[in-house]
């Protein structure tokens, strides 16, 4: 049920960004488990993608995580406020990643409510990458975690969506990426209320 390491080594990050929709993202913190169904993602295509932290082969202490073998987490602070959770994919030296932008609460909703100070019935609890990470308790301590271990992991519960149920569009907040900002590499489940805006 837990996704194996081989899953993350797939070199097609666009495929994985779509395939991760419907998978379940789990965290265990101090014995408390929370989980949500992944309903929105974005693909980041390594050194050739102007929206990627690794564009042009950029290597810093922060981005080094992206260059490792797939199957680890890449968590960074955005605007000094929000922690964003990414799944590092592909083989060593190929810095692809999938940003998890939204989850639908599945387990530990009462814990999520405490973390987000709102009811889990409100989509805002886990809509958008910062909110999704906070609801699941993900912060910088989760950077470089092995996704096949027991602190943070992803499971396949057999939830599948047809091509008609998946919407593809431009990524959010990457206007600086020029023409790459228009690439349809944001994927989400059509009609799911936990998907961040804009949605069609």
UniProtKB/TrEMBL annotation:
CDD domains: AAG
Record flagged with keyword Repressor: no
Pfam family membership, one: Pur_DNA_glyco
Keyword flag DNA damage: yes
Enzyme nomenclature, EC number: 3.2.2.-
InterPro entries: Formyl_transferase-like_C_sf, MPG, MPG_sf
Family to which the UniProt record says this protein belongs: Belongs to the DNA glycosylase MPG family.
Protein name: Putative 3-methyladenine DNA glycosylase
């Amino acid at each position: 049920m837990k996704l194996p390491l081989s899953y993350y080594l797939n070199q097609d990050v666009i495929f994985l960004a779509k395939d991760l929709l419907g998978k379940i993202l789990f965290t265990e913190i101090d014995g408390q488990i929370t989980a949500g169904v992944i309903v929105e993602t974005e693909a980041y295509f390594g050194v050739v993608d102007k929206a990627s932290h690794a564009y042009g082969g950029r290597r810093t202490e922060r981005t080094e995580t992206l260059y490792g073998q797939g199957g680890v987490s890449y968590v960074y602070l955005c605007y000094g406020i929000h922690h964003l959770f990414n799944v590092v994919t592909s083989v060593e030296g190929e810095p692809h990643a999938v940003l998890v932008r939204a989850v639908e609460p599945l387990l530990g909703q009462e814990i999520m409510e405490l973390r987000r100070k709102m009811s889990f019935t409100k989509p805002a609890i886990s809509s958008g990458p910062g909110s999704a990470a906070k609801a699941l308790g993900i912060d910088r301590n989760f950077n470089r975690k092995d996704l096949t271990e027991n602190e943070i992991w992803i499971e396949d519960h057999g939830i599948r969506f047809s091509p008609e149920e998946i919407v593809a569009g431009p990524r959010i907040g990457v206007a600086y990426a020029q023409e790459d900002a228009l690439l349809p590499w944001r994927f989400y489940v059509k009609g799911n209320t936990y998907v961040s805006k804009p949605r069609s």
